[in-house]
Amino acid sequence: MRKPRIAMRPVPAHIVSQMLAAMRDETGSALMMRYGISYNTWRKLRVGDPVRDSLAERLERRVVELQAADPRSYR
């Protein structure tokens, strides 16, 4: 019996750019605290590799929420 395939997709480049613009440093702990992702996931995002669809959706929501809370950080 085959395992079901996990839906995967890249995070849109504009979201990754917004994340990068708002970051003070790219350490594992900073990424985890701000976005809830590991450094390895961040490396995938930076090069446009696909991640789990559920992770991409959660991350996109988080960026929108953080933008609304502090628009100056996302310029």
Report on the structure:
- The chain is built from four helices and two strands.
- It has helices at residues 13-22, 28-35, 39-47, 53-69; strands spanning 8-9, 51-52.
- It is mainly alpha-helical and 75 residues long.
Give a nutshell description of this structure:
The protein has 75 residues and is mainly alpha-helical.
In N-to-C order, the SSE pattern is: EHHHEH
Adjacency order of strands in the biggest sheet: 1-2
List low-confidence stretches: none
Largest sheet: 2 strands, antiparallel
Q: Could you name the key traits of this structure?
A:
single chain, 75 residues, mainly alpha, two-stranded antiparallel sheet, 4 helices, 5% strand, elongated
SSE map:
Blueprint lengths: L7 E2 L3 H10 L5 H8 L3 H9 L3 E2 H17 L6
Antiparallel strand pairs: 1-2
